[in-house]
Amino acid sequence: MTKEEVIEVIKRNIVENLDDVEADSIDATKSMKEYGANSLDMIEVVSTSMRELNIKIPRSELAELGNIDELADKFMEYINKG
Amino acid sequence: MPDATDFSLADFHLNDNPNVLEPPADYLEWISDPDVRQAFTFFEQQLLTAPRTRSEILSNLDRERRPIINLTSYNYLGLSTHPEVLQAARETLDRYGLSASGAPLVSGTFDLHVELARRLAEFKQKDDCLLFSSGYGGNLGALQGMMRKGDVIAMDERSHKSVIDGATLSGARKVFFAHNDPEDLAAQLEKHRDRRILVVLEGVYSMDGDLCRLPELADVADEYGAGIYIDEAHSTLMFGENGRGVAEHFGMEDRIGVSYGTLSKSFGGVGGFICANARLINYLKGYSSAWNFSCSPSPPVVGGLIKALEVATRDSTLRDRLWTNTEYFRSRLDSMGLDTGDCESQVIPLIIGPSGEKLFRYATAMQKRGLFLQPIDYPAVPAHRRRFRISMSSQLEEEDMDRALNIIEDVIVRDRD
Ligand SMILES: Cc1ncc(COP(=O)(O)O)c(C=O)c1O
Hints:
CATH topology of chain A: Non-ribosomal Peptide Synthetase Peptidyl Carrier Protein, Chain A
Largest sheet of chain B: 7 strands, mixed
Shape of chain A: globular
Strand content of chain B: 15-25%
Bound molecules: pyridoxal-5'-phosphate
Oligomer: heterodimer
Largest sheet of chain A: none
Strand order of the largest sheet of chain B: 4-10-9-8-7-5-6
Number of helices of chain B: 15
CATH class of chain A: Mainly Alpha
Number of domains of chain A: 1
CATH superfamily of chain A: ACP-like
CATH architecture of the largest domain in chain B: 3-Layer(aba) Sandwich
Helix content of chain A: 40-55%
Largest interface: A-B, 15 and 21 residues
Order of helices and strands of chain B: HHEEEHHEHEHEHEHEHEEHHHHEHEEEH
Number of domains of chain B: 2
Radius of gyration of chain B: 22 Å
Number of strands of chain B: 14
CATH topology of the largest domain in chain B: Aspartate Aminotransferase, domain 2
Number of strands of chain A: 0
Order of helices and strands of chain A: HHH
Radius of gyration of chain A: 12 Å
CATH class of the largest domain in chain B: Alpha Beta
Helix content of chain B: 40-55%
Distance between the termini of chain A: 11 Å
Structural class of chain B: alpha/beta
């Protein structure tokens, strides 16, 4: 799976979990906060994305991430580990 | 795959087990890991006596009955075992029995409930009061009853779960602002200028023991025409000249729209309440489900609580003693160079840092020495600020405090040095 595909998964889950956001308008260099996500929304997006990608990353490792792109990098790390 | 101890309860909320009667498969694997099981042994240890500062537990560490100094129970003023409170509870029990046997609108309202609500409203200097059977249920019911889809609830990021759940149930948009940060609150509210907004604050934040910056935050709320709701769970009967809470402490009670309190902490009973203007309380009786669709508080508890309020407010003896104890304990912790964060109250965090291993090793050693001080782990607190949370009590004698401090010094300070 490529990083672009991972970003698509994250974007789809953002659209499903937040009101009034369209996938095309999401810029991966930004934080989900900019699209109106609160901390609970972000947990939901991350959990549902991880489920779809079949990976499991401890929440404690995700606390420091700043934007969608960094989240995708983190996901890639775990996808490549298998 | 990371270590089992890297995971926490934060990681298993989503359940995709096809069998709805089972937890997630990976949760079961995680929970049976020896290190995780060791950490979980600290949960649900049985107290064998009243939650006084000297008590006895059945330790989960070794199944021993062990006398302990209790710095964990939030019996701040010792009212749960105050002789006058117990006598009042006994008398009400004899007269009214154990249960109210009804929801408040139908048959669960006794003269007792009306009296406690009236006294609480008078105490908080509001028109009226609604009593709930649980503190959690009070925040849940009040927020669900007040707010609607399309509204905005702005909460501090360290808000208690009962506030967050009440906000979720209401259907309002949940907005979190950075802890105690008026500028961030303003930035968040700016995005929702045209909405009905409620700003929810806590008098004392329960994991850190710091106070809300009420003057600055209230100014922001006013600027945006927002109502103010304050949770005084850990401050009622303790802060302010007359013990009315942090709003009294700051001299700002008239700017608070809804004042929430729990009856389980300083009051020594169980239940919750909100005080507000009479029109809102009247409206909530029809729309606050945790009130309307739940049995009224148990009569002996209510009888005891009426007395507890009287005992705690007839003079300042209990809270004076609490503050003397708190000052003594804090200054001794400070002189040992321990990290108590931004503590400003009787809730004293003892911050250990990122190591879960240390946290549980210290907790085990302290308990075996006779100090009941429960570890607070991630996700209840940030992973790099794992801690113990000390609840001070007016009941503590200097001798108990010195013993507790000695144990803390032997276990934590010696390990550090
Ligand atoms: C800030 C805060 N609000 C509400 C509650 C709920 O109160 P109770 O435990 O009485 O249900 C608590 C305590 O658990 C709390 O710390």
